[in-house]
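To close the section, here is one more complete example, presented without commentary so you can practise reading it yourself. The ligand is NAP.
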Amino acid sequence: MRALYIGRFQPYHLGHHAVIKQIASEAEEVIICIGSAQRSHELDNPFTAGERYMMISKSLREEGILNFYIVPVLDVNWNAVWVSHVESLIPPVEIVYTNNPLIERLFKERGYEVRTPMLFNRSEYSGNEIRRRMLNNEDWECLVPRAVVTVIKEIDGMSRLRELTRRDE
Ligand code: NAP
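Output:
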């Protein structure tokens, strides 16, 4: 069985990681779509698709998980054709995992089985909370896999976020 998991991963955190590890242990292959691939250098979307790709790939490989493919997906401003757009970029999948109600609806209408994974420690494992902590110099490293800390330091992601705040002010 091939499964699909879609998220924005801004950044990839331990909540996403726990869910994908679980799916990877049940499915033969997991296709991980990086949504809003065109967005980066914004306060809510600081990281590029390539940076998010590195975060996910390194985190999973570090734990010996190899049965995944990562596919960046650009947004299309047209929900009715978005599933076809995703289908045109990925291998065929049987099950879609998502916590996003719009994605659930769109894939169900196309006849897919959609499952909602359990969210782990939602109050802390949240992209929003991690970006807030980065901006306030609070401990965010404990909320992401070790490989994500390495990637964010390598690309100097903290100072990028701070510059973005200055620009918004
Ligand atoms: P998502 O990743 O499916 O997540 C929905 C919510 O659940 C987010 O608040 C997310 O928080 C949270 N979450 C997901 N997995 C979690 C986990 N394991 N543990 C804790 N919290 C978790 O939704 P999304 O971020 O909106 O990504 C969906 C992508 O699909 C977007 O890029 C969207 O643009 C795209 N899309 C595009 C179209 C179109 O182009 N027409 C239509 C539909 C969807 P976090 O912030 O912590 O991840």
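Once you have examined the tokens, check your reading against these statements. The domain at 2-164 is CATH 3.40.50.620 (Rossmann fold). Helices lie at 14-26, 49-62, 79-87, 101-109, 127-135, 146-154, 157-168.
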